[in-house]
Fold this sequence. Notes:
By secondary structure, the chain is mainly alpha-helical. It folds into 2 domains: 1-137, Farnesyl Diphosphate Synthase; 187-324, Farnesyl Diphosphate Synthase (Orthogonal Bundle), CATH 1.10.600.10. 73% of the residues lie in helices and 1% in strands. It has helices at residues 4-18, 25-35, 42-53, 62-83, 94-97, 100-116, 123-150, 158-183, 188-215, 227-230, 236-244, 247-256, 264-278, 280-300, 306-320; strands spanning 87-88, 91-92. The protein has a two-stranded antiparallel ribbon with strand order 1-2. The protein is globular and about 60 Å long.
Amino acid sequence: MHDLQFYREAFVSYLNDFTVAKEPDTLYSPINYILQLGGKRLRPVLTLMTAEVFDTDYKKAMDAALSIEVFHNFSLVHDDIMDDAPLRRGKKTVHEKWDINTGILSGDAMLIMAYQLFENYDNSTFKSLAELFSKTALQVCEGQQYDVDFETRNDVKISDYIHMIEYKTAVLIGAAMKMGAIVAKAEESSQNGIYEFGRNLGIAFQLQDDYLDAYGNPETFGKQVGGDIIENKKTYLYLKAIEFAEAESKKALYSLYNSNTEDQISKIETVKQIFDDSGASNATKEAIEEYTNKAFSELNSLDIPESKKDVLRQFGEQLMNRDT
């Protein structure tokens, strides 16, 4: 097996060959633009790596990996429209650089292109990939809708939130890994096991992202620290604070999350103090550890050589030990 950087570079090279000029330019230029904006390429790298975990050349999983990346970026194009976001990875979003109609149509085309990539596999593999993809894509849409709904709900429970981030984020990580196993024609139990490893790691990853949004290093985090607090997002930290906080602090938190004060720095610091005093920050770190351990437990049960488990474990540890 290779290291993550090798898979990433191999995938980017394949992606560059995919993003060629086509007509009409007004449809395909926005697609090529979003696909070439960069990013960690985490999901396609996982697909390639998993294929080799199950003794198959990573090159055979390249189209499945590309499908995952095209779908992920399709969802970003439409999410940015829904959020009216001006920037994506430091550059103009598609709907800002072109217009909303272009963003919608180019996004639609990307979803179709993602499916088309499965046509490069034999019938059995195509069927398995398409079934997993359809299920996952619908779950991602459901997760996005839950996220939108939660903005106006005051009765969101911890279980609701975990379900939302599972669908919005974690299932796509699980699916990326399972696709590699499908291409490798691994046993069904192994396919399901690697999916659960990725899904649980995905939940842990999103919980950590929530935590770092409040407590990350401002110089290296890559986006504004405290952004979720400014936007009044009901993250795991917020929900745990509502569960644990004393009545006076809970009332203050409700008030802060129903306001749009101009003194954002003061709001962030006050909310973080409530997170700390209530025990919400520690509870969030415990939840991150819980889901990371669940992922590693799934990994331990996989019928693969210990050397390959070590590679996946190292990847998981690297992913979860970030502080930015």
